[in-house]
Amino acid sequence: MKYYHAKTIKATTIEAIRPKVEEELKKEGFGVLTEIDIQATMKKKLDKDYLPHVILGACNPVYADKVLSIEPTISTMLPCNVTLRQLPNGDVEIAIIDPLAAMGAVGNSDLEVHAKEVNEKLERALANI
Fold first, then answer.
1. Residues of the chain with pLDDT under 70
2. Which of 13, 46, 82, 95 is buried deepest, with most CB atoms within 10 A?
């Protein structure tokens, strides 16, 4: 099973496309809670050079509340990761976790309906970027 959804935006930068990513996530009820700069972290920790690559932790509090009330330790899998990765050809790949794949690992069928709804929201946000 594929564990993410992705889209490539031609000839752009992370800085240029990020506002649109956040705008579309917001339309679906998500806010960005965390940011990890892979490029800066790998340079600092390993002295390795990476192209720009950012992980955004996106949370829809309504759905977070629903799944936490069913399975409190699901917090280990929150928030939903959205990555923006500069490709060598100048394009940017946007990849979003597939909550159905992630939550499927938990083995609690009560989570499935919520994971499906979150997945639909994330796919819609990605399609609108």
1. 1
2. 82
Distance separating alpha carbons of residues 31 and 45, to the nearest angstrom: 28
Tokens of 33: 């809670």
Per-residue pLDDT tens digits for 14-26: 999 999 999 999 9
Give me the sheet containing 31-37, strands edge to edge.
4-9, 92-97, 80-86, 53-59, 31-37
Q: Which residues contact 11 (CB under 8 A, 6 or more apart)?
A: 90, 91
Domains and CATH numbers, the chain: 4-127 (3.30.310.70)
- Name the region of 107 (left: φ>0; alpha: ψ -120 to 50; beta: rest): left
Q: Which amino acid appears at position 75 of this protein?
A: S
Distances 43 to 79, 81, 103 between C-alpha atoms, Å: 25, 21, 32
